[in-house]
Structures are given as structure tokens and as C-alpha cells.
Amino acid sequence: MKIPSTAIFADGFEGGMMKYNEVHSTDVKLLGWDMESQEGSYTGDFSDVAKGKNTAQQLINQGADIIMPVAGPVGAGALTAASESDGVSVIWVDADGYLTQPEQGQYILTSVMKEIGQAVFDTIKSVADGNWTSEQYVGDLENGGVSISPFHDFDSKVPAELKDEIEQIKQDIISGKIKVETKNQP
Question: How far apart are CA 125 and CA 37, in angstroms?
Fold first, then answer.
């Protein structure tokens, strides 16, 4: 659905792609999202798996080889489309899709994870320490509120240099050297 909590994932995906293009002098294209206009491909709900498959298949037909469905259960449709297409993988969201979607885990490159456990821990600790405020909690790389999952079946296919680059980017985001921007800041 077109809401800030889904758009922020797409903005991050586009920002990462742009950084990759800058560093590697490549021209990877993004289909299905435009950060500037905040417009993209939507199914309109979080439950119609057939719409998820159809939307993913449209992207695959345009040349997409990685799909990132920010769609809850609708993402299962994207996994089905990937499983029926050569060379297509999925970046899952919210939890480690390799573990939550084990029957199609071999198509999941990685997952962008909301570390809800860390958020709960931090909130309870702030209450216990007498530091709790009603200020909004925003999970980020620095406080461990978000992360990416292991590459699981793709681990041997992801070059060590790229893994090192991802870790350096993570550190550069935490230090502020790289600014992550979105129109959907919480």
C-alpha cells in the first residue's frame, strides 16, 4: 500500500542502488519505485498473494532480477514469481524470510529486518533506568533496530569484497559519513 512505512523501505533500496552505481560506475536500474515522486508499483493491500505475483511478474518481464516486495503476505506472490523465473531473487522485509518462508528460502538473497526485540528491550530498559520518554523510538543501524539477514543459500555467490563493502557502508551510516535520506522519516 502507498503508506510511509512501505515507502521508507523503497527509498532505502533506491538509495542503496544509487550508492552502488556511484561506487562501481555502473548503471543498475530500479523498476517499480521513484524516490523523488514517491510513486511506484502497489497491489493496494497486504493479503492478495495473486496480486503480488502479478506485480512481481510485471517487473520481471521488464528485466528485474531482484524483487523487494514490501507487502507482508503479498510478498509470497513475489517469491512464487521468482521461483518460476531463471535468475530472479527476492530481498524479503521485516524478518529473515529464509526462516519465515523456508519452502522458498532458496530464492531469498537477504532480508531487511525490523529488530523488534531490540526495540522492546531498549524501551523496557529505558523504563527500568528511569529514562523513558514519550519520544518516538526509531530503530536504526546504530541502536540495532534494523539489520540485514545472512545471505544463507546465496552466501557463496556474494563476493567477499561486496560483503566487506556492505559492512563498511553500515559503519559509515552509523558514523554519519553516509547520510540516509527519505521523505518518510518517522
Answer: 39
Beta strands in 20-158 (DSSP E): 33-34, 39-40, 66-67, 89-94, 108-114, 146-148
Global pTM value: 0.92
**Dihedrals phi, psi of 169, to nearest 5 degrees:** -60, -40
What CA–CA distance (Å, rounded) separates 41 from 53? Answer: 12
**pLDDT tens across the length of the chain (186 residues):** 889 989 999 999 999 999 999 999 999 999 999 999 999 999 998 999 999 999 999 999 999 999 999 998 899 999 999 999 999 999 999 999 999 999 999 999 999 999 999 989 999 999 999 999 998 888 899 999 999 999 999 999 999 999 999 999 999 999 999 998 888 876
What angle do helix axes 49-61 and 75-83 make, rounded to 10 degrees? 50
Beta bridge mates, 110? 91
Q: Regarding beta strands 108-114 and 146-148, do their DSSP bridges make them parallel or antiparallel, or are they unpaired? A: antiparallel
**Domains by residue range for the chain, with CATH:** 4-114+146-175 (3.40.50.2300)
- How far apart are the C-alpha atoms of 186 and 183, rounded to whole Å? 9
Residue 32 CB contacts under 8 Å (≥ 6 apart), including other chains: 40, 41, 55, 59, 64
